[in-house]
């Protein structure tokens, strides 16, 4: 029976490859009319390019002249600048579906086509939401990202994903869509709150721990400078962290996350849950710092790394200024959070642990009692 069925089956095996390429710039003052970063991206590609700037409300409030500066830059360089849109800050932008509707309406109204540009200036949340709208309007309008937080510049804004929240589920709707380009303007960070500056440092500690022992040492040695956001250390931390994320996307063999492994999600299974439990009162980076501490302690209890190494990781995080003991840890149900993370991965649990400082490895099982012990140890830190 089955052989008869297969005898009548025909198959055409479709296969093609697309090369994605985009540049990530690290610069300052990119809206100074003399600065060519933005115009060099645009000018050779279209005769009269249109650009729609979409700005994070938090950035707009702290940089009230930004929209005008973008308009002046466009005028000076003969880019058709359209009236800027200001969108809600932070998770509100990802929770409120009307933001996406408003962007689609603007795309329609201003006849933005696949050769026009959307320029987004904002934190990781706004970049995510605008990225989703840009990727889906006309099946993809060119998106130039200008992340304005440390976490946006060293992680969220440089990769290939976007998402919005749906029915209170984080990142439930989204696409994989590489940007046209990313411009990390370090001057934008000047108006960022200390809390948001610090939050992004957690992602640098994360990549250093799983991939780059020398980077970990650099972060450790500059931890006091990072705590007060000393310029050179902060810039170095951002560029190296962004580079590590970009390298991973380019070389992991799974840029669109078709498999279950998420090595860059070290410390994230509990972080996602902590963000949810605090109703996003904890910043993503703050939750990741706690998650890194927890999974480092667990790696230590399992005997994969030494207690001395665990202590060094905790010292780095604490000296940078992270508060690793948060009241919400009491509400963290390890079994439930792991089950949810497993579902998020598509059915196979895959958690990154440390076998050394600078080396991550994946496991498919977690000893839940030992993880609960790790959580107790974390809560007893003083
Ligand atoms: N797509 C991805 O690959 C990816 C990766 C990691 C995180 N993320 C997402 O990123 C989001 C977190 O991003 P975030 O940490 O940048 O926080 P955020 O976007 O929530 O911004 C935090 C706050 O900083 C304000 N802000 C931003 N830039 C500012 C500036 N220059 N001056 C003054 N205020 C400014 C914002 O208005 C907001 O109030 C989450 O939604 C997370 O899911 C996405
Ligand atoms: Zn993260």
Automatic annotation (TrEMBL):
The lineage of its organism: Bacteria, Pseudomonadati, Pseudomonadota, Gammaproteobacteria, Alteromonadales. NCBIfam families: PRK06203.1. It is an enzyme of class 4 (lyase). Residues 200-337 form the 3-dehydroquinate synthase C-terminal domain. One of its GO terms (molecular function) is 3-dehydroquinate synthase activity. Keywords: Amino-acid biosynthesis, Aromatic amino acid biosynthesis, Cobalt, Lyase, Metal-binding, NAD. Its cofactor is NAD(+); Co(2+). Coiled coil: none annotated. It holds the Pfam family DHQS_C. InterPro entries: Dehydroquinate_synthase, DHQ_synth_fam, DHQS/DOIS_N, DHQS_C. This is 3-dehydroquinate synthase. Its EC number is 4.2.3.4. The keyword Disulfide bond does not apply. Residues 85-196 form the 3-dehydroquinate synthase N-terminal domain.
């Amino acid at each position: 029976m089955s052989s008869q069925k297969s005898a009548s089956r025909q198959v055409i095996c479709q296969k093609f490859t697309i090369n994605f390429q985009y540049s990530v710039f690290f610069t300052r003052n990119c809206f100074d009319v003399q600065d060519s970063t933005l115009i060099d991206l645009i000018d050779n590609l279209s005769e009269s390019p249109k650009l729609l700037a979409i700005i994070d409300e938090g950035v707009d409030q702290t940089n009230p002249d930004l929209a005008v500066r973008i308009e002046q830059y466009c005028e000076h360089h003969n880019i058709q600048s359209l009236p800027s849109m200001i969108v809600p800050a932070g998770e509100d932008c990802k929770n409120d579906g009307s933001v996406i509707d408003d962007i689609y309406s603007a795309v329609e109204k201003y006849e933005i086509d696949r050769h026009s540009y959307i320029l987004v200036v904002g934190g990781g949340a706004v970049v995510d939401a605008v990225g989703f709208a840009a990727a889906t309007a006309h099946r993809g309008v060119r998106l130039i990202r200008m992340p304005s937080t440390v976490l946006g510049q060293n992680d969220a804004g440089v990769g290939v994903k976007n998402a919005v929240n749906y029915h209170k589920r984080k990142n439930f709707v989204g696409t994989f869509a590489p940007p046209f380009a990313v411009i990390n303007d370090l001057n934008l960070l000047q108006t960022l709150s200390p809390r948001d500056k610090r939050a992004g440092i957690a992602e640098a500690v994360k990549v250093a721990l799983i991939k780059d022992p020398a980077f970990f040492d650099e972060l450790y040695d500059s931890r006091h400078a990072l705590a007060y956001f000393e310029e050179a250390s902060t810039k170095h931390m951002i560029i190296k962290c962004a580079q590590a994320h970009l390298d991973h996307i380019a070389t992991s063999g799974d840029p669109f996350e078709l498999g279950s492994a998420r090595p860059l999600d070290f410390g994230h299974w509990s972080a996602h849950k902590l963000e949810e439990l605090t109703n996003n009162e904890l910043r993503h980076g703050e939750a990741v710092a706690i998650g890194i501490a927890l999974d480092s302690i667990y790696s230590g209890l399992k005997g994969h790394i030494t207690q001395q190494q665990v202590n060094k990781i905790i010292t780095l995080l604490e000296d940078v200024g992270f508060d690793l003991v948060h009241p919400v840890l009491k509400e963290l149900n390890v079994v439930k959070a792991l089950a949810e993370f497993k579902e998020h991965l598509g059915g196979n649990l895959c958690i990154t642990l440390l076998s050394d400082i600078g080396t991550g490895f994946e496991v498919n099982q977690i000893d839940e009692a030992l993880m609960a012990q790790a959580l107790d140890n974390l809560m007893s830190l003083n």
